[in-house]
Amino acid sequence: MGIVIGVVGPHDLVDDVAATCEEQPGVSALRLDYDHESQAPSIVEAHASAVEGWLFTGIVPYMLSRDADVLTRPAAFVDYSGATLLSGLVRLLSQGQDVTTLSIDTLSAGDVAATFGEAGLDAAEVRTLPYRAGMTSDKAIAFHRRGPAHAVITCLSSVYEALRGQMHVLRLAPSVHSVRVALRQLLLTAEGQAQEDAQIALGLIEVDGEEGLLREATALGGTLAAFRGGTHLLVTTRGPLHDATGGFSSLPMLARLAGHNSVVRVGFGLGRSAAEAESLARRALARARRIGSVAAVLSLRADTDIVLESVTAVPAGEQNLTVLARRVGLSVPTLEKLVEAKAAVGEEPLTTKEIAERLAVQQRTARRMLHRLELAGLAERTGNLTSGSSGRPLTLYRLTL
């Protein structure tokens, strides 16, 4: 069985990195290039369902995607220190450049010093700008322009394009060895994730009627069958269940089924065999019965139980924020601010930035909150708003709580 790796990077690097990946038997590469590294998070988000892992051509697009909280699959990046940096130094020396007075971005001072030491070169006068959160291409360009005339090594295509007519600048390209090292690490991680995702997940469902059950089972990538005592059996695997529950935090299907039934109890068991998963599902269902008429529990090995969602009946038209807070894992004050925001705009959607400002949180925190609300059916995406810059488009949400 093959694995699809999404290769993300600038136009001129993606093909070579992808070709090196495809030398590995069973690996196919989805080539995803960008004009500017800031576009990487939106590319990852748009193609997340098409790959089993991500390989970035450098640390910057990887970190931007990680910080944007869009990496739902194993990911790795090609390291530019070591063999890649050494290759660049050799090229500069062959061009007659003094490599002891360089300015180098993205790489850490320690990695640079180690590579120079292995090559027998003095790095005392070499300036470095290590990658840190918030580093931009503009900051890197300003860093390289400081000081007397010198050669530049950059890991960023945007910096190279800005400086190449002004200074002697070399842009590092990942060596084949570095790509193979990164790919090996990624494949090991992806293989472990695949084995984990393939764990059997069995759900035992007690419900008054069957309306909507088949649809919910299909959404979980599973099958539905009758079980003993009028209980229904839902068979799926860990991966789809993890995705549908937002990382085992809530179970949106519970609220939807509760709209048609007075009793909805779900017990999921996650095991390495069908027998183990069934035993754990029985334990989970027993706990769900103790919680109330509408509840869901996931039981794992080592006596670990996770309450996915517990809903208390609320009179029609009345919002119980305490119940909603338990369902989505947010505080009541946060939900109160969101209710105020909904009242202020009515049916008009809000951007993630606007919601972040109303809640006084960072945008990535707001995105996590909105994802939880979306899973619980309390918010819905209505599209994207492009800001006109090369930054990530803002997602529009309509609040329904």
Q: What's the tally of helices?
A: 16
Structural class: alpha/beta
Strands, count? 17
End-to-end separation in angstroms reads: 43 Å
Can you give a write-up of this model?
It is a single chain. The protein is an alpha/beta fold. Helices cover 42% and strands 23% of the residues. The protein contains 16 helices and 17 strands. The chain has helices spanning 11-21, 40-46, 59-67, 83-94, 109-118, 137-145, 157-163, 176-197, 213-219, 238-244, 252-258, 274-291, 321-328, 332-345, 352-359, 363-375; strands at 3-10, 27-34, 53-56, 75-77, 103-106, 127-130, 152-154, 169-171, 200-207, 223-226, 232-237, 264-271, 294-300, 304-310, 350-351, 379-385, 394-399. It has a 6-stranded mixed β-sheet with strand order 10-11-9-12-13-14. The chain has a 4-stranded parallel β-sheet with strand order 2-1-3-4, with helices on both faces. Strands 6-5-7-8 form a 4-stranded parallel β-sheet, covered by helices on one side. The longest helix is centred in the middle third of the chain and has 22 residues, at 176-197.
Give a quick summary of the entry:
This protein is of the alpha/beta class. It has 16 helices and 17 strands. Strand 5, helix 5 and strand 6 (127-130) form a beta-alpha-beta unit.
Salient structural properties:
401 residues; 4-stranded parallel beta sheet; 23% strand; alpha/beta; 16 helices; 6-stranded mixed beta sheet
SSE layout:
Elements: E1 3-10, H1 11-21, E2 27-34, H2 40-46, E3 53-56, H3 59-67, E4 75-77, H4 83-94, E5 103-106, H5 109-118, E6 127-130, H6 137-145, E7 152-154, H7 157-163, E8 169-171, H8 176-197, E9 200-207, H9 213-219, E10 223-226, E11 232-237, H10 238-244, H11 252-258, E12 264-271, H12 274-291, E13 294-300, E14 304-310, H13 321-328, H14 332-345, E15 350-351, H15 352-359, H16 363-375, E16 379-385, E17 394-399
Parallel strand pairs: 1-2, 1-3, 3-4, 5-6, 5-7, 7-8, 12-13
Antiparallel strand pairs: 9-11, 9-12, 10-11, 13-14, 15-17, 16-17
